[in-house]
Each structure stands twice: as C-alpha cells, then as structure tokens.
Specification:
Length: about 350
C-alpha cells in the first residue's frame, strides 16, 4: 500500500526527508525570476543557476525546496490530458559540488519506496544512453534488474534549463500504473501506463551559444519531483486535477455553475480543469506582484485570466466568479506559501485605500 498523504503532507515529507539528510530547507523563490532569459520561474533549479555556473558562492552545500513554477508552453493541453499544467510545484534536492550520482539515486529510491511506500516492482528508472555510471548504480547499488533500467536519448535524458547554460545527463523515475502488462515491452512514452515523477539531473556541464559543452566548476545535483504527480499516484485518482491540490477549486467553480463535476460532460470537465489549473497560476502571479498587461509576464497573466473567464462562461457561470474560486486556491496554497494570504490582505487594503481616495 502506498502512503496515503495529502498534497501538503507530500510536500512536507519531501522537505523533512532531505532536511534529515543535511539539506537546508529554503523558501520558494518568486515566480518573477532574477534570470533574464526566462519570463517566469520554470524549475526548482532556476534560483540556483548562478551557483551552478560558478557566478555565486553557495551559502550551503545542500538545499531542498518546494518551488512554485509556471510553464505555459503546453497551455492548450491543460485540462485535456491527465497532467499538463501552467502552475505546478517542483520539489527538489540540490547539491552544490557536494554529493553526486550515488547519493542522489540512493535517496530518491529510499524516499520513493520507504517513505512514500511506492512498491519497488512498480518503479522503472531511465538513464541517459551514455551514462554507464548511473546505469551501474541502479543495477548494483539499488538492485534493479538490468532489463528494467531504460536507456534513453538526449531528447529525454539530458536536461538543460535553456539553449545555453548548466545542463547534464539525467535519470528519471517512472511509476507503472499497469504492472500486469509485464516487463517485455516497456514504453515509457505510454502515459496511460507510466508517469514520470522524479527527475535527477547530474548537472556537470555548461553549454555555450555554439552548443559546446564544457565542465562546470563543480559536479552538482538538481532534482525535481512533481508534487501534483506524486499526489495523483498516492491519492489513487485518475489525473492530477482530481488531487486535493486542485479538486477543491474545481468543485468551487462547479458549485457556482450549479453543476456536479462527476456528472458533467467531457468538455465541461475540461473547462473546470482549466479553471482549477489557471486560478492557481493567477493567484501566485498576483501574489508575486505581477499585474495584468499586454506585454511580457503581464500578458501571460492577462491571458490566463481571460481563459478562466471564458471557461467559466462555457460551464454556465454568469458574471464575476474568480475571487470566489481564488479564495479556495489561497486557502490551499497558504499552507506552504504564507505570502499568498499576506499579499491578499495587503492588496485588499490598498484596494480599499484606493477607493477611499477616489
Ligand atoms: N531541472 C529539472 C527539471 O526541471 C530537475 O529539477 O525537470
């Protein structure tokens, strides 16, 4: 039996596990990145990029975070697939020139099987095709039968934060929803069978603008576990949206529309899922000081708000409803990100202040 945990417990369990392994728990960085190459924080490693590149000294050699992230490259798939999101949280453990592949793999396995209690026979690791060292660790130290360790090409198992910058081979952990299908034909691209939930990046290169790789000053570890994905696995629900991290927002929207999610048509369910996803983005972006506009980050926010309004209309909601569903999102997010509630209060104060003055 897997551990039965709420989203908040999964997050805290991850941080506590790595704190016990000597990692400092650091707060999530803002969604507005210092890094000028991206509009929004897209991964847990982003705040640490200058450390990986040797441009900034690390204050600690091991850190763990729950990082709020937004990626909008798959926005059209949100609600249509089981696990595409704009807003998601990445749980990460990081080594800045301290431990490397052996510990990263051993701890990912220990956390997965002993703490979250995922059955080992349901877990499949992948490695970069040329990474014999990671392959050997999975086989010899962890004891995974060779035929279950999947070698994959650079498009899947060589991770980089962008066209240039820190990068390295990675090893991913997949959960098998259908182990009864056997070991003969393991196709990790089959997302009705497998879900990738943990990516261990062995961050040891810098890629320059000519595509040339050179070794970084240190060998580092950058990992990312998808909180929503782990919640789907542990909560035994058919998609990320029906986890306790997002479903209350969906139910709040359905209630305003006077409908029931479980009885709704497929198209209506998609709209409710879009609302559930986008409202979390909107809340976190506004809490981090972004305002709607027609350029840059502000445009992303405006687009998300417009999509929430449109999908609200599609499910039959008349009139304004975002603040109501936002309250449900804030109540869930404030557990890990207290700034969301604090800034909700201060924005209300400044709002009423503005009204008084006008
Ligand atoms: N940076 C890697 C990712 O985003 C692991 O954290 O998947």
């Amino acid at each position: 039996m897997v551990a039965s945990l709420s989203g908040a417990q999964i997050r805290q369990t991850f941080l506590d596990f790595y704190a016990a392994k000597g990692h400092k728990i650091l707060p999530s960085a803002s969604l507005v990145p210092e890094d000028p190459t991206v509009l929004l924080t897209i991964a847990g490693m982003l705040p640490f990029k200058p450390i990986f590149l040797g441009q900034r000294e690390a204050e600690v050699s091991r850190a763990t975070t729950s990082q709020k992230c937004i990626r909008t490259n798959d926005i059209e798939n949100v609600g249509k697939t089981a696990r595409h999101h704009t807003y998601f949280e990445m749980l990460g453990n990081f080594s800045f020139g301290d431990y490397f592949k052996e510990e990263a793999i051993a701890w990912a396995w220990e956390l997965s099987t002993e703490v979250y209690k995922l059955p080992p026979e349901r877990l499949i690791p992948s490695v970069f095709s040329e990474d014999d060292e990671a392959f050997a660790i999975w086989r010899d130290k962890i004891g995974i039968p060779e035929h279950r360790i999947q070698r994959m090409g650079a498009e899947d198992n060589f991770w980089a934060s962008g066209p240039t910058g820190p990068c390295g081979p990675c090893s991913e952990l997949y959960y098998d929803f259908h182990p009864e299908k056997g070991d003969e034909k393991i196709d990790l691209e089959d997302d009705s069978r497998f879900i990738e939930y943990y990516n261990l990046v062995f961050m040891e290169y810098n890629r320059d603008s000519d595509g040339k790789l050179s070794p970084l000053k240190n060998k580092n570890i950058d990992t990312g576990m998808g909180l929503e994905r782990m919640a789907q696995i542990l909560q035994g629900v058919p998609n990320n949206y029906e986890t306790d991290l997002i479903f209350p927002i969906i139910e709040a929207a359905a209630q305003i529309a006077g409908i029931k999610y479980q009885k709704a048509k497929a198209k209506t369910k998609i709209s409710l899922k879009v609302i559930g996803d986008h409202v979390r983005s909107v809340v976190q972006m506004i809490a981090d000081g972004i305002t709607a506009s027609n350029v840059g980050r502000g445009y992303v926010l405006r687009r998300l708000i417009r999509r929430v309004v449109r999908h609200g209309q599609l499910v039959g909601i008349d009139g304004a409803f975002i603040t109501q569903v936002a309250e449900t999102a804030i109540a869930s997010l404030e557990v890990a990100y207290p700034e969301v509630r604090e800034r909700e209060k201060s924005s209300k104060l400044s709002w009423s202040g503005k009204n008084r003055n006008s």
